[in-house]
Structures are given as structure tokens and as C-alpha cells.
Write a structure and sequence with these properties.
This protein is 28% helix and 34% strand. The longest helix has 23 residues. It is elongated, with a radius of gyration of 21 Å.
């Protein structure tokens, strides 16, 4: 018992020291390359580091300053590793959004504490990798439940902590990024990664606008899907539009850019205009890094109402 007490005491001291260092050192999270200042998609992000069991809140102001806005201790799945299948008691690693708020009596207090937020696990990338399971939430637990118990795969906080975070959560917008280890890097390295993604993004947009379809389609993976289109039929569709319209203008406002391992989620407000059609909406690109370039695996678009 004495050994365990000393071990957890030392671990607590280490965690406090690590948290203090992160909060007072100018470091940037590699998983968050950009948060948009465009109020139509402006949001923030929660970074769950499984190795340190820390949850960091990052907003646009703290990102620009290389700071952590808030940080909390968490519990994760009982078993180590990335979630692969239902009931494996592992916490998934990926880029998620917080979708719905739930509280007692809708959910049992003894299991979820005072508050819970659902996520979109399995996301697009998870489904592509044939991962199964559901019900991965960010939630609390009763105060008497230790944060070292291990969850069934959820990210777990203290009741008081989730109540503090609640004010910063924007449903369907706030990102929850879960990784085995969050990479805190220098401003120079962060800027390099951000520039890489933005240069690719602007090239893709320019090639589309200039109707340079031979190079435009090279930005798409062979596995590209945007139902009812695949890569081949997507190119044929774009060629038909090129023959129909005399010009195309694509204004793409400052994007949110989130990346994890080789996965990127790029979200932006797209203002499209041609001599035959005009619309404005939120576009989300699901992108994979392949041999030092980026390839779009999927596009999603939704109309922006009251823009």
C-alpha cells in the first residue's frame, strides 16, 4: 500500500509539473493547424491526450498565443490502444465533434455523472478503416468514482470540470481530438505544417476555379467518394459543368484545419458562383496525406442558411 501511495503521489506531482510547463511554455498543438476567425464556422477544440490523461481546451486566441486555455485530468478506456471494435474498452483516436448534450434524468447519474456530450464516433475515417462500436461520449462520473478506474471507451471528467467546459462547447462545431499523445511543437514547426496544408488547399481551389481539371483531379484519392460520385464520375461531372459554364468563381474563406496522423479535416465556407449557378455553404474535406501530398477522400457540403 505504501508503495502504491508513493507511486501515485509521484505521478500526481509529475502531472502537475507537466501541466504547469505546458501552460507556461509557448508551444502549439500540431493536431490543430488553424481555427477559423469566420464567425459562421468559428469554434474551439478539446485535445484529449491518452498518454498523460489530460484534456486541453484550445480556442483561437490561445492557439495564436501558443497557450492552453484550460486543462483537466481525464479517465480513458480500460484497455490501451486505439478502438477497433465494439466492446473492446478502448478509447478511439480520431477527429470528432460534440453533437448532443445529455443530463439526468435522461441518462443515469451513477454512470455518466451530471453531464455528457455525444460524439460522431465512428467518423468517416473510422468507417473506412472498418472500426465498429458506438456510444463514445465525453462525460463525467460521480465524485466518489476514481478517475483511474478505466471507462468502456469514453473520455471521462470530474463533474465540476465538465461543468466548466460546458460553457465553451458549441454543439455540432466543437472538435474533440483524441490521440495517444498530443504533439506540442515550436511556432516554426507549427507554421510549417499549417503552411503545407494551406498551400495545398489554395492550389486545389485555384485549379478548380481556373477549370484546370487535369491537375484538379490529381488532388483526389482513387478511393474518393461523394455519393453518388466516385473519382471517375466526379471528373466527368466537372467536365460537363466546364462545358456548360463560361466561368467559375470559388471563394473559400479561412478554414478550420485539424490533423491527426495522416488524417486531415478541412472545413470552410464556400461561396460558389458561375454564370449558371450560385450557392454558399459549409464544405468539409476529409483528406489523407499520401507520400508528402494530400488527397481528398470525401467532400461534404451543406447549405449555409441566413449567411
Amino acid at each position: 500500500m505504501s508503495f502504491l501511495y508513493n507511486f501515485f503521489s509521484l505521478l500526481s506531482i509529475f502531472m502537475i509539473a507537466s501541466t504547469t510547463y505546458a501552460q507556461n511554455t509557448v508551444l502549439y498543438p500540431k493536431q490543430i493547424l488553424n481555427l477559423s476567425a469566420d464567425q459562421r464556422i468559428a469554434t474551439n477544440a478539446l485535445l484529449a491526450d491518452k498518454s498523460t490523461r489530460q484534456l486541453s481546451l484550445i480556442d483561437i486566441e490561445s492557439l495564436l498565443k501558443g497557450r492552453i486555455k484550460e486543462q483537466y485530468t481525464i479517465d480513458i478506456g480500460k484497455n490501451n490502444g486505439d478502438k477497433k471494435k465494439r466492446d473492446d474498452s478502448r478509447t478511439p483516436e480520431g477527429i470528432y465533434r460534440l453533437l448532443m448534450r445529455k443530463a439526468p434524468p435522461e441518462i443515469p447519474f451513477e454512470t455518466y455523472g451530471s453531464l455528457a456530450f455525444t460524439t460522431n464516433y465512428p467518423n468517416y475515417f473510422d468507417k473506412t478503416d472498418n472500426k465498429t462500436g458506438s456510444g463514445i461520449w465525453l462525460h463525467s462520473v460521480p465524485d466518489e468514482v476514481p478517475l483511474t478506474r478505466g471507462s468502456r471507451g469514453c473520455v471521462v471528467l470530474r463533474n465540476n470540470d465538465i461543468k466548466k467546459i460546458e460553457a465553451s462547447i458549441i454543439l455540432n462545431k466543437t472538435f474533440l481530438i483524441i490521440d495517444n499523445q498530443i504533439n506540442w511543437v515550436s511556432k516554426e514547426e507549427h507554421s510549417k505544417e499549417k503552411e503545407f496544408a494551406l498551400n495545398w488547399f489554395n492550389q486545389w481551389r485555384t485549379q478548380w476555379q481556373e477549370q484546370d481539371l487535369d491537375n484538379y483531379i490529381k488532388n483526389y484519392s482513387d478511393e474518393f467518394s461523394a455519393p453518388p460520385y466516385n473519382k471517375k464520375t466526379w471528373l466527368a461531372h466537372k467536365k460537363k459543368l466546364k462545358d456548360r459554364y463560361s466561368y467559375v468563381k470559388v471563394a473559400a474563406f479561412e478554414p478550420n484545419i485539424i490533423q491527426l496522423k495522416n488524417q486531415y479535416v478541412i472545413q470552410f465556407v464556400q461561396d460558389y458562383e458561375s454564370d449558371g449557378h450560385k450557392d454558399i455553404g459549409i464544405k468539409t474535406l476529409y483528406v489523407l496525406k499520401q507520400e508528402n501530398t494530400l488527397k481528398i477522400n470525401r467532400e461534404e457540403w451543406s447549405e449555409l442558411i441566413n449567411n
